[in-house]
Amino acid sequence: MSRTLFSHAYGETESSRKRLAVQAATFIVMLMAFYIGSFYNFLLFHTLAEMFAVVTACSIFMVTWNARPFFKEKSFFSFVGIAYLFVGILDLTHTMTYKGVNILPGIDPNVPTQLWISARYLESVSLLGAFFLFKSRIKAQIYLFGFSAATLLILLSIFHWQIFPDCYLEDAGGLTAFKKNSEYIICLILGLALSALQHNRNRFESTLFNWLQASIIVTIISELLFTTYVGVYGPAIMLGHYFKIVSYYCLYKALIETGLSRPYSTLFKNLTDSRESYQALFSNMIDGFARHRVIWDKNGIPADYEFLETNPAFEELTGFKNVVGKRVKQLMPDIEKDPVNWIAVFGKVAMDGKPVRIEGRSDQLGKWFSVNAYCVRHGEFVTIIEDITEKKQALDALFVQSEWLKTTLNSIGDGVISTDENRRISFINPVAEKLTGWAQADALGKRIEEVFSIDLESRNCSYTQIQELYVPEDLPMPLACKGMLVRRDDTRIPVEETISRLENEKKEVTGLVFVFRDISVQQEYQKKLKNANERLEEKIEERTRSLYQTIKRLEEEIELRMDAETRYHNSHKEMLARAGQLRALAGKLTMAEQAERRRVAKILHDGIQQYMAAAKLHLSGLERQLQDPQLSDAAKKIEETIGTCIQMARSLSADLSPPALYRGGLISGLKWLAGRMQERHQFHMDFTSQISGVSLSEDIVLLVFESVRELLFNAVKYAGTSAAKVRLKKEGEDHLCLSVQDEGKGFDPSGITVSNNMNQGLGLFSIQERIQLIGGTFKITSSPGRGSRFDIVLPYEQETKTSISTDDNPANNSAAPNDNAVGKRSSEKDIRVLLADDHAIFRKGVFQALKETAGIQLIGQAHDGMEIVELAGKLKPDAILMDINMPGMNGIEATRRIYKAHPEIKILALSMYEKEAYARDIISAGAVNFISKGCTASEMVAAIQKAVTVV
């Protein structure tokens, strides 16, 4: 039980827990003493228990009565304290009349039971009613008088009048129905009081709340036990009194010990709440707050002031952090340069004690402030500041707007008069003065109908119900009218007027605005216009007759033209069909031309070049065998001639079918073209691409490549420049743009026709037609003296990267017999060489050239990549002569595999193409050098020896 009663102490400090444990142990010992005493004499136990409750109740009254000015909830605690005084009086009377005590003899057991029930009713109703008195202003003396009267009536009803219902009839079965039902009603009232306590828990300190709650709960248990006893000395009564002792102990902890030992938290909770409210206000107020101390110079003049306290809003408004203890001149060295002498103003406030309110600008902070300064004590002052920068800016803007509006109204050509809600004139501009004849000084304050007088008979408004100068609120605005203005000198002029309402934010009319103009000239023009219209109508009627005849002739001509247009439309459709056929034919012609180029290039590469390379190698070997110097020189010249032929064939093959284009696609081909233009024509092609790879069909790649080459050739021939820029980029999500730009002579694009382009390669017109054939556009931007730019835009969808098929590449379709000829090792120091090439004639030429070379032994030959990879693993040569283009696995992949498995083998690349075209890829795969097939035998031997000897 003690654990339940004191569970609220969880979370307190260690010393508090120890003190609480001692108190709990003492209380348990006291309960045990009561229990032991009950065995000796039940009356003694009953008397001690009841007296404990009576003493506690009286103590509660004394504490709450004397401490009532300090409680936050004065009415509640005063009411409860007084109630328990009279509950204690009834309990004391109950004790003295209890059966067997004999203090008041001759009283049966019914009387103490009645006193018990009346005390419990008074206690429960008082606890419940106390929660409805938080805002009550009734004085405590009135509560005292009321409880005195109620207690006196209870005692009289029991002892004198004997009208109080019976509660215990010893001869009739013990407890009466009234007694039992009353206990349940009392429990219900206590339950409502407990609910009210929970609802108002924020009004009480937590410890006080917990003890009050425990007291009410234990009291309810005690009352339920008192519904079950039969005899006045029964165990239920004893157990009920135990719970009553615990209940009053909880009240003692709540209202006596807490009130005396913790006055700060209980008696002065109001002060704590006030301080917290002040602190919350201080921290959360929007305006800046600061407390200062003035610092005087030796002459007693304010020279500076120190910050003693600031709130967060002050720091946010000024931008100063951690300013307490600092002086204003430390934070704002130039404060004395501000338009307002802040130090002098605040010093005067601290000296005289008179508050001031001042608005001024701080140049250092760049803001306007409204400052309220108050003196809190001599030499100290408090400032409450508000940032009014936006307000000042708004006022400045409003002033500018007002001046602008005034200037505008004085400058416009219409008369303007405004009135207040009483229709008295508040403004009149110069034009209105001139039209009405009233000067502004005379017109201001007069009613509008005195100055702006319209002849009502001449007024022509859209609302004819207007009989006087009045604008009902239900009429739409603005209201336009015309009429004769009666001027001050009684002369009249026609005017056109517009009336508008001035409204405030609540849509209430605050005045009217009249805008009017002299329409005399306008009416004169209208009269002339009317006469002109009448004459015009006569001429129109005459012209209409003539026009009717003309229309009839035109209808006949239109019919003839419609027949001609039908014939033209049919001819145009036929022409478009022929144009489509021509475009398709042009596309096929392009592919046929490229196919023929590749066929010729294949013949040059696989046939002529290979035979010439083999012949050169054979002739190189023969040259070393000839003893006759003349024959040797002749052989050398023939070898040089063959080498020149190889170079020419290689160049022609590359021009006809660029290997880089077929191997790497459009970007690789354009890079090759840049080098080719530099080499052949000393023309610099600056090529950049914003994308890394392009996936286009073969015919489109070929067409675009040939178009760019044709544009560059035109630049070489006609532009008079040695450089051009080629840019490749994506345009939007589904187009590619390839632009060719030079800074040459330029030309007039309008002069480009079919006739003058047919003799210029593809021709610009032909390029345009073929690009349009594949769904693209070709744009020419040029003018004489300003260079030229050509933009080719192609539809493009990103797909899996594919390159131009290499099946037709000159290096891929030559089959060679497997003529591996492995020679015997003649010397341990000979360099062992393998040869891989798909052209048998070239392999024989190399074999013949190396056969007679001392120190080199050709130990095997292969005609494709797979075969050379197998031979390299079996024979472990010192070097391999590797052709790049071979059927099946090419030389680059074979080199990569051999280098990975046998990095000690030196691989030299062979190709009929130029070194720059393939050297990068095969050397990155593991080759050590690149040898052209057009080299001499001695050059090949030197390259082999260098590759093997260099570590």
SSE layout and pairing:
Blueprint: H1 2-5, H2 14-40, H3 42-67, H4 74-96, H5 110-130, H6 140-160, E1 168-169, E2 174-175, H7 177-199, H8 206-225, H9 235-261, H10 269-284, E3 288-296, E4 302-310, H11 312-318, H12 328-331, H13 342-352, E5 356-362, E6 367-377, E7 380-387, H14 389-411, E8 415-419, E9 425-428, H15 430-436, H16 440-443, H17 448-451, E10 453-454, E11 460-461, E12 479-486, E13 492-503, E14 509-518, H18 520-625, H19 629-656, H20 659-664, H21 666-681, E15 684-689, H22 698-719, E16 723-730, E17 735-742, H23 764-773, E18 777-782, E19 788-795, E20 831-836, H24 840-851, E21 856-862, H25 865-875, E22 879-883, H26 891-901, E23 906-911, H27 915-925, E24 929-932, H28 937-949
Parallel strand pairs: 15-16, 20-21, 20-22, 22-23, 23-24
Antiparallel strand pairs: 1-2, 3-4, 3-7, 5-6, 6-7, 8-9, 8-14, 10-12, 11-12, 12-13, 13-14, 16-17, 17-19, 18-19
Helix pairs in contact: 2-3, 3-4, 3-9, 4-5, 4-6, 5-6, 5-7, 7-8, 8-9, 18-19, 18-24, 21-22, 22-23, 25-26
Give an account of the 3D structure.
- With 951 residues, the protein is of the alpha+beta class.
- The protein folds into 5 domains: 14-272, Up-down Bundle (Rhopdopsin 7-helix transmembrane proteins), CATH 1.20.1070; 285-392, Beta-Lactamase, CATH 3.30.450.20; 412-518, PAS domain (Beta-Lactamase); 658-795, 2-Layer Sandwich (Heat Shock Protein 90), CATH 3.30.565; 831-949, Rossmann fold, CATH 3.40.50.2300.
- The protein has 28 helices and 24 strands.
- The strands form 5 sheets. Strands 8, 9, 10, 11, 12, 13 and 14 form a 7-stranded antiparallel beta sheet that branches. The chain has a 5-stranded antiparallel beta sheet with strand order 4-3-7-6-5. It has a 5-stranded mixed beta sheet with strand order 15-16-17-19-18.
- Strand 23 (906-911), helix 27 and strand 24 (929-932) form a beta-alpha-beta unit.
